[in-house]
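A quick aside before the break. I want you to see a complete sequence-to-structure record at least once, exactly as it would be stored in a machine-readable document. Don't worry about memorizing anything.
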Amino acid sequence: MTMTLQQLKQQIADSSLTMVIEFWASWCAPCQMMKPVIEELEKEYKNKIKVIKINSDLSPKIVSQYTVQGLPTIIIFKNGKEAERVTGAQSKQALSKLIEKYS
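That is the input. The structure line, written in tokens, reads:
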């Protein structure tokens, strides 16, 4: 599913949950490594976080708006504002710590 910039901003603003936005691309090997990690975390924290995956090739306006400079990039939003971001493949443990910090 492709999302517009306005739709993404609306979801971030409206969510009472911590938002985890993952920027990825099909050609990005580290992104493919992160896919099962993100899916596990989404299940484990299903009542605490909302995960949105943005295919950077299909959403250049969103990539530009959020100044994504490398893939994968994961941005954590809390109360509608960017709280933290990490770029590059992360361990499940590192991402869990981030999620715990904001959820």
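Two observations worth writing down. DSSP finds four helices and four strands in the chain. The helical segments are 5-14, 29-44, 60-65, 92-102. We'll return to this after the break.
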